[in-house]
Amino acid sequence: MKKGRKFVTSFKEYFISTLLTLVLGVALGFVSLCLVNMLPVERMNYNAEVAKDMISKEGTTYSIYEMKSTELDNYTDSIMVSTAICPTDASVLEKVVYNYHVSYFKQYSEQENLRRYLEGEEGYSYSFYSHYWNGYLIFLKPLLLLFEYNDILMLNFMVQILLIMWIIIGMVKRKREFLILPFIITLLSVSAPVATAMSIQLSDVIYVVLIGSGLFVWKNGRMEDKRAYLVFLCLGMMTSYLDFLTYPLLSLGIPVIVWLACNPLSDPIQAIVKIVINSAAWSIGYVGMWLSKGIIGSLLYPDSQALETGIGHFFWRTSGDVGAEVVGVARVVEKNVFAYINWPVMFAIAFTVVWLLARIFMQKRLNKDSIWKVLPYFVVMLYPFVWFAIMKNHSYIHAYMVYRILAIAVFAGLVVLANIAHRTEIE
User: Fold this and answer.
1) Beta-ladder partners of 73
2) pTM above 0.85, yes or no
3) What is the rounded end-to-end Cα distance, in angstroms, of the chain?
4) Which of 36, 43, 38 is nearest to 145 (CA)?
5) Per residue in 84-97, pLDDT tens?
6) Burial of 90 by CB count in 10 Å (0-12 exposed, 13-18 middle, 19+ buried)?
7) Residue 124: enclosing H or E segment and its boundaries?
8) Is-cis flag, bond preceding 193, omega within 30?
């Protein structure tokens, strides 16, 4: 009876905390967007001038090293810049709901739309993305007010580097050095901070990954279960709020591995249960934040069809219909694996694996007990493939950015080997 009452009490506490956090997050996100949409766009137009040359010169997508793994999404970057500087006279609430951007009737590409608008061409209209929060605007609008586009990209690079350094310093101070090499290799495998710094579209999820990972590293086992649950809930909400549907699962997979490594448990079954709970928290945050935009948009402006459009896109993105054919999970995995292959990075991963295996076998550290203790990491390795099975359409069409979630499996595998090699006990 006591256990039953304790479970009910705990469930009520988690439910209330989840609900309050979601409501506060939605309110804060909405108010923040209202505030930045009050900023004047004239100066932003001037600072965005560089963007039209850089993006239109590079094309719809641009690969920094002629590799799929470093491909930028200039199409969406153009929409994001255009949304930030859109000159519509609509009310603040309407701007927040609709997220207008400039478009022309001649069916130009989004880069061409942005270029022609910044060059002063008349005859434009407005397109909109009412089913996304477009939360990146709370940063992009103030930045465009202060800096030119190319300066923002450089600032983006610098901040990502500083966050990575903050995490590595934390790993050293909290005696989790064995995480450093797997972490660096994993970041390189998703072309961070190279491609991620040069594309606004690709930056959002990386920031959530770095912030979440940093919090767990610096807490290093001192974070109670409920607080960890709420952190994952917030990470899911932040991802949904900021992201334009790129590779959102990475903001769950990498932090959950870091959390597991920094909060070792002797019972792997108990660890798996906590992984599932924290992953559920991230999912609730992600889906809850996404649904809230559709509900708010449809209530304030029924014509926006924010909720209907969002639900329609969900069913489309989860189907295997990619236009000319219907693809299965195997095809989706295959395309993403080939996008992930970057030979210099693959060499670094292989070298790290061989080096760690050599240390394990030379020092005779591999046994049934050590394998049993790292079992929870193998559960997390499956996350990318679950995502591919659910989001087949999006994962296939946008493999050039979705492939990054495969880094979850790579990071988990490298941490397993590093953990055993360095005799880090999971208890």
Assistant:
1) 61
2) yes
3) 30
4) 43
5) 999 888 999 999 99
6) middle
7) strand 124-128
8) yes
